[in-house]
Amino acid sequence: MDNKSDEALDLPAGFRFHPTDDEIITCYLINKVLNISFSAIAIGEADLNKCEPWDLPKRAKMGEKDWYFFCQRDRKYPTGTRTNRATESGYWKATGKDREIYKGKSNQLIGMKKTLVFYKGRAPRGEKTNWVMHEFRLDGKLATCNLPKDAKVPF
User: Fold this and answer.
1) What's the pLDDT tens digit per position in 102-134?
2) Closest by CA position to 44, among listed 95, 9, 92
3) Contact (Cβ atoms closer than 8 angstroms) between residue 11 and residue 40
4) Looking at residue 150, what is its pLDDT?
């Protein structure tokens, strides 16, 4: 599906979508977690296990160098907690350590940011590419395991 042709975006001249890390968590991700039908004008949806990185730009709603997507984490094993990050032609490998994301001046931990690099082929002999992805997840009091079913988050 080509989202660019499906939706005509009526945005002001010079509009750029460049949210901060805490805005991604507090304005978009928490709303998506609490309401699966939530959508954002600048954020598409993609299954990153069925999409190669070079196919993502045409699935994006907007952006030239950076694209934003909601996606469900796929489990490597049905009963496990490990995340499946493989595609047909390669895999996403975590690099560095996860960064903590805090809410503005309150300094409350709200999420984590993981950096991943795409490798062509299969581990451990994959060939590193220039494709980089940042994965955001809720953490702290906003971690999905801490949210009651009828949670109403105050921002």
Assistant:
1) 997 788 999 999 999 999 999 999 999 999 999
2) 9
3) no
4) 61
Neighbours of 136 (CB within 10 A): 18
Backbone angles phi, psi at 150, to 5 degrees: -105, 30
Three-class SS of residue 103? strand
Give the model confidence (pLDDT) of 11-42 as tens digits: 777 778 889 999 999 999 999 988 888 989 88
Find, among 152, 134, 132, 127, the residue nearest to 142 by Cα: 152
Are 135 and 128 contacting, i.e. CB atoms less than 8 angstroms apart?
Answer: no
> The CATH number of 17-145 is which of 2.170.150.80, 2.60.40.10, 1.10.287.600, 3.30.2130.10?
2.170.150.80
Contact 53, 71 (CB under 8 A): no
Strand partners, 105: none
pLDDT of residue 2 exceeding 50: no
Q: Sheet with 108-120: list strands edge to edge.
A: 90-103, 108-120, 127-138
CA–CA distance from 37 to each of 9, 33, 42 (Å)?
A: 19, 9, 15
